[in-house]
């Protein structure tokens, strides 16, 4: 039973060039036609220059890319700040938002490691010790116990808290905080109720809220830009209006329908908010929403107010302050328009952000009801409010469950009922529903593209999803048979797009992806031309 | 007498220690929602759905299924079901360990009832008293055997399983050896000197009536001392998960209580939004309330 020595949590403090080496030969095997491993792209290594410049001693991957401090004093100052951030995390004034869940998760882990095998990243990596759900949590727990508790240092050895809090530890923890998608599959299997995803989330908050350190794509280019320019994509209101006009022309061209996007319509029933990434990367999605809502005769509107046309809320992944700012803006805009409800487009984390987590932020008069588009669409499709012909979707389809919408919010069946009704060749992935696997793009990964992080994302964090997709289509895996993955979430679509490109999934297997509303419009009897587009061969 | 004093002290420390922790968790402010599905009280949604699946959900009544929650909790608590499914290797040790513990708690309770009946004047030879005592023998003996086996199993796994060893601390071994010693002394005392557990029952009777009883058997004595010490130690360890799980599951994982207009939740949220945060990152102005922080214009 004795195996080779594992890397234990206190090893994180021991300076070395790199804690683990990532070699695709170790990664979890993929099914046919990738089973031979020949099509596994080589893992992109950092250049010597990058390694010299940035803190990359965790795994040779850079997501946060912290520049190496120039002096020992700088290092010490960062370590000090880290500890003060951790201390604040444990006070109600600074962290009422998560104090109780965090305290409980820090106090009760039995170190049984039951959660490990639930984690797609740990398993996909070929079980690298540092990617265990418990690894970063235990390191943080040890630091809190040793440095913040009375007698912590005295009993550190006996209590198992003899970790050294030095700059190496802090720098590695910063990267390690971005090797978990916050999918919380681990938490689901913990027999005690400990949530390692939550601990990752809180760790990210120390870096962001105290030290001003976060992945640039989610902070500077993400939530900061969102609040300042109106959208994390950089799309400003004027450009949005131009884009929408262009989309109206496109709808006309593709379907013959003359539709005008209703903008800032006061007193509408519904304020629909999309992830603004859709306008730029998948405009067919907001177009399809408009076609469906108009066909159903709904009284709806889009907003062109700053922030009001981008449903994302990146703060959910790393910063409670940024989170609260965006959530409040969304609610204020809905209040101003006097709508009955906010409906969230196909964006998983936006669903959870505004419906679940922000439920205890947007309070009193700005507490406008929020609803999932899945629920609303189910009503339209399944109660005969649209004229649909399922035969138009007669190709193999599988459904991806966005973690934020499903495991973390409980919207499970509406999207399935729609697909079951309009896609005759629908098949489930295994496992699915609340036991699903993350697309690998969760918690901001889908939009993070620093150095070799995209390689890590597609080959490790998205590997389990790719495996599931391939398995769902094994009986029709021939590239001549066109197949579609339905992913009702912008970030999931982004991550899946990258995995498919990385592994040439269209050329090798004939698999593509799209959102949910595209299937609905594709099935509409009154629209003659197919709405779903397949990649060029 | 010293022995009895130790037992009184044990009960006092145990109760105070647990209460302190309960109060600490209870006094924590409301937190944002962070639930995890499936939530067993969601009526008719065993697949893991929520009320968010309803059109205009805020207009619908809240339907909670108490039965669903019980159906989930009983096998989880009694048989450690989660571990059975997700970590079978560990379950083979953890289940006897926990079940043994429950039986020993049952054993203590039965002895306590026996002692009280005795004080109340019921003869130890009467049918109910003999029945209780026989039941106590079954609970105690089976509990000590299972507990001992479970403890040994857990010790072996902690020592030889690489994944467990990588995270093991001296304290973890200490805890297991401590509990093993309790089970083992109980088992040996029963098999060698107290087959009907009368010594223990009489000791408890002495504790209740403030009448020190002398314990002749060194094994029984060791068992009582260890058990008393354990009661004093437990509140300060992670073994309080037996009640902390209530907070972790009911107050976090399954907390899907909605913030409706005019609700108690709304009032609590209003209060916490007035806390002053003190974060230092450049995009946050320290010293402002959360309400101000969330609405201020940022550079
Ligand atoms: S988080 Fe839960 S499952 Fe994971 S090691 Fe800790 S107690 Fe076990
Ligand atoms: S939240 Fe998901 S990715 Fe993160 S440790 Fe848990 S299972 Fe792994």
Describe the 3D structure.
The complex is a heterodimer of chains A (537) and B (299). Chain A is mainly α and 537 residues long. Chain A has helices spanning 48-53, 72-89, 92-95, 99-107, 120-124, 133-148, 156-159, 167-176, 185-189, 196-210, 219-229, 237-255, 277-281, 284-295, 315-318, 320-337, 348-355, 373-382, 413-422, 453-461, 463-472, 490-503, 505-509, 517-522, and strands at residues 270-273, 300-301, 341-344, 370-372, 397-399, 426-427, 483-486, 511-514. Chain A is built from 24 helices and eight strands. A four-stranded parallel beta sheet of chain A has the order 2-1-3-4. Chain A has a four-stranded parallel beta sheet with strand order 6-5-7-8, with helices on both faces. Chain A is globular. Chain B starts with a helix and ends with a helix. In chain B, helix 4 (88-119) packs across helix 8 (198-209). Chain B is mainly alpha-helical and 299 residues long. Classes of the chains: A mainly alpha (537), B mainly alpha (299). Chains A and B meet through helix 2, helix 3, helix 4, helix 7 and helix 9 of A and helix 3, helix 6, helix 7, helix 10 and helix 11 of B. Bound molecules: iron/sulfur cluster (2 copies). The site of one iron/sulfur cluster (SF4) has 14 residues of chain A, from helix 9 and helix 10.
Most extensive interface, chain pair and sizes: A-B, 100 and 84 residues
Largest sheet of chain A: 4 strands, parallel
- % residues in beta strands of chain B: under 5%
Name of the top-level CATH class of the largest domain in chain B: Mainly Alpha
Structural class of chain B: mainly alpha
CATH superfamily of the largest domain in chain B: Transmembrane di-heme cytochromes, Chain C
Strand order of the largest sheet of chain A: 2-1-3-4
- Using the alpha-carbon principal axes, give the shape of chain B: elongated
What percent of residues of chain A are in strands?
under 5%
Low-confidence spans of chain B: none
How helix-rich are the residues of chain B, as a percent range? Answer: 55-70%
Whole-number mean pLDDT of chain A:
97
Count of folded domains of chain A:
3
Please give the radius of gyration of chain B in angstroms.
25 Å
Number of strands of chain A: 8
CATH topology of the largest domain in chain B: Fumarate Reductase Cytochrome B subunit
């Amino acid at each position: 039973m004795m195996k080779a020595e594992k890397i234990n949590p206190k090893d994180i403090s021991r300076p070395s060039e790199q804690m683990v080496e990532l070699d695709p030969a170790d990664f979890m095997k993929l099914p046919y036609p990738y089973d031979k491993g020949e099509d596994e792209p080589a893992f992109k290594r950092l250049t010597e220059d990058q390694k010299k410049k940035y803190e990359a001693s965790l795994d040779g991957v850079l997501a946060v890319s912290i520049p190496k401090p120039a002096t020992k004093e700088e290092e010490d100052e960062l370590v000090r700040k880290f500890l003060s951030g951790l201390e604040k995390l444990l006070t109600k004034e600074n962290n009422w938002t998560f104090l109780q869940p965090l305290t409980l998760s820090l106090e009760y882990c039995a170190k049984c490691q039951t959660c490990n095998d639930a984690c797609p990243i740990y398993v996909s990596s070929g079980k690298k010790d540092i990617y265990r759900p418990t690894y970063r949590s235990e390191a943080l727990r040890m630091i809190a116990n040793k440095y913040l508790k009375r007698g912590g240092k005295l009993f550190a050895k006996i209590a198992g808290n003899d970790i050294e809090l030095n700059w190496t530890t802090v720098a590695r923890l910063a990267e390690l905080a971005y090797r978990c998608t916050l999918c919380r599959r681990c938490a689901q299997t913990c027999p005690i109720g400990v949530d390692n995803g939550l601990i990752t989330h809180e760790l990210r908050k120390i870096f962001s809220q105290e030290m001003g350190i976060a992945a640039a794509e989610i902070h500077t280019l993400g939530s900061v830009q969102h609040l300042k320019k109106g959208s994390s994509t950089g799309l400003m209101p004027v450009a949005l209006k131009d884009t929408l006009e262009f989309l109206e022309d496109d709808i006309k061209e593709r379907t013959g329908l003359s539709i005008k996007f209703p903008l800032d319509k006061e007193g509408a029933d519904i304020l629909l908010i999309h992830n603004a990434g859709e306008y730029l990367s998948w405009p067919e999605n907001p177009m399809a929403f408009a076609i469906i809502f108009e066909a159903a005769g709904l009284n709806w509107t889009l907003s062109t107010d700053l922030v009001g046309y981008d449903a994302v809320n990146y703060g959910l992944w790393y910063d409670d302050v940024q989170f609260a700012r965006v959530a409040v803006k969304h609610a204020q805009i809905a209040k101003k328009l006097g709508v009955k409800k906010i409906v969230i487009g196909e964006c998983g984390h936006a669903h959870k952000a505004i419906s679940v987590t922000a439920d205890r932020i947007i309070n009193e008069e700005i507490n406008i009801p929020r609803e999932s588009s899945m629920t609303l669409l189910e009503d339209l499709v399944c109660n005969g409010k649209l004229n649909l012909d399922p035969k138009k979707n007669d190709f193999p389809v599988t459904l991806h469950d966005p973690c934020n919408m499903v495991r973390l919010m409980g919207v499970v069946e509406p999207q399935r009922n729609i697909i079951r009704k309009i896609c005759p060749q629908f098949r489930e992935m295994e496992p699915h529903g609340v036991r699903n696997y993350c697309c690998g793009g969760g918690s901001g990964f889908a939009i993070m593209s620093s150095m070799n992080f995209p390689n890590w994302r597609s080959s490790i964090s998205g590997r389990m999803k790719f495996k599931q997709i391939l398995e769902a289509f094994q009986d029709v895996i021939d590239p001549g048979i066109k197949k579609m993955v339905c992913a009702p979430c912008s970030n999931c679509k982004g991550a899946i797009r990258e995995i498919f490109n990385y592994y040439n999934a269209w050329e090798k297997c004939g698999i593509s992806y799209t959102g949910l509303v595209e299937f609905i419009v594709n099935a509409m009897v009154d629209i003659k031309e197919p709405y779903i587009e397949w990649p060029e061969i | 007498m010293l022995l009895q004093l130790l037992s009184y002290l044990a009960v006092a420390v145990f109760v105070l220690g647990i209460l302190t922790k309960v109060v600490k968790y209870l006094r924590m402010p409301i937190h944002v929602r962070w639930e995890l599905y499936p939530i067993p009280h969601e009526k008719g949604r065993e697949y893991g759905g929520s009320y968010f699946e309803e059109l205009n959900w805020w207009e619908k009544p809240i339907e909670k299924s108490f039965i669903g929650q019980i159906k989930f909790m009983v096998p989880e608590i009694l048989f450690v079901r989660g571990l059975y499914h997700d970590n079978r290797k560990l379950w083979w040790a953890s289940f006897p360990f926990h079940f043994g513990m429950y039986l020993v708690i049952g054993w203590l309770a039965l002895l306590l009832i026996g002692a009280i009946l005795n004080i109340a004047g019921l003869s130890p030879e009467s049918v109910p008293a003999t029945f209780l005592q026989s039941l106590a023998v079954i609970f105690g003996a089976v509990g000590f055997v299972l507990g001992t086996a479970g403890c040994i199993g857990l010790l072996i796994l902690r020592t030889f399983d690489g994944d467990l060893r990588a995270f093991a601390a001296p304290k973890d071994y200490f805890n297991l050896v401590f509990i093993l010693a309790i089970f083992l002394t109980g088992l040996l005392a029963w098999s060698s000197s107290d087959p009907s557990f009368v010594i223990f029952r009489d000791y408890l009777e002495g504790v209740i009536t403030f009448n020190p009883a002398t314990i002749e058997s060194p094994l029984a004595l060791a068992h009582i001392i260890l058990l008393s010490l354990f009661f004093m130690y437990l509140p300060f360890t992670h073994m309080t998960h037996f009640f902390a799980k209530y907070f972790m599951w009911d107050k976090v994982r399954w907390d899907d209580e909605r913030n409706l207009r005019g609700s108690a939740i709304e009032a609590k949220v209003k209060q916490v939004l007035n806390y002053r945060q003190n974060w230092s990152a450049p995009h946050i102005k320290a010293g402002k309330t959360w309400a101000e922080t969330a609405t201020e214009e940022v550079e």
